[in-house]
Amino acid sequence: MKKTSLAKLSIKNVEFYAYHGVKAEEKKLGGKYEVDLDLYYNSKNAIIRDDINDALNYEEAIFGISEVLNYDSYNLIETMANEILNITMDKFEFLEKATVRIRKINVPMRRVLDYIEIEQSIERNLE
Fold first, then answer.
1. For residue 104, what is the enclosing H or E element?
2. Which H or E run includes 42?
3. Which of 3.40.50.300, 3.30.1510.10, 3.20.20.70, 3.30.1130.10 is the CATH number of 6-123?
4. Confidence (pTM)
5. Hey, CA dihedral for 21, 67, 98, 79, is it positive or negative?
6. Interacting residues of 94 by C-beta distance below 8 A, sequence separation 6+
7. Mean pLDDT computed over every residue of the chain
8. CB-hemisphere CA count at 13 Å for 68?
9. Do the beta carbons of residue 23 and residue 59 sit within 8 Å?
């Protein structure tokens, strides 16, 4: 088998209703969030063995996102993004890089906008 390059597994638009934000009403009433997660890893072993144990289990990755959005309350989406990245890197030792995007829908402000979005990335030091 030929060498494989870095694989990118993308999870797009996972939706949550969660209770985060700086304002008290955001924590009380909640709001809609959408999350994307891009996961980069060497998939060679998964391809050779065709085994989920060697692959990046996206169901586990989604569960990690859910842990952050559903079980804690944060003021900032930057903090939420950081927590998602740290949990994801902890779950998958072979993960080389991850990028998360969180969209906060229906932002409570006196402006018309679709959403605000944060994007953060983390890379494992493989040296």
1. strand 95-105
2. strand 31-42
3. 3.30.1130.10
4. 0.88
5. positive
6. 41, 42, 56
7. 90
8. 27
9. no
Q: Place 2 in a pLDDT band, splitting at 50, 70 and 90.
A: low
Residue 67 makes CB contacts below 8 A (sequence gap 6+) with 87
In the chain, % of residues over pLDDT 90:
57
Using the structure block, give the residue that is written with the tokens 């906060």: 104
| Residue 25 token pair | 């009403």
Q: How far apart are CA 56 and CA 121, in angstroms?
A: 17
Residues in the chain: 127
Sequence letter at residue 67: E
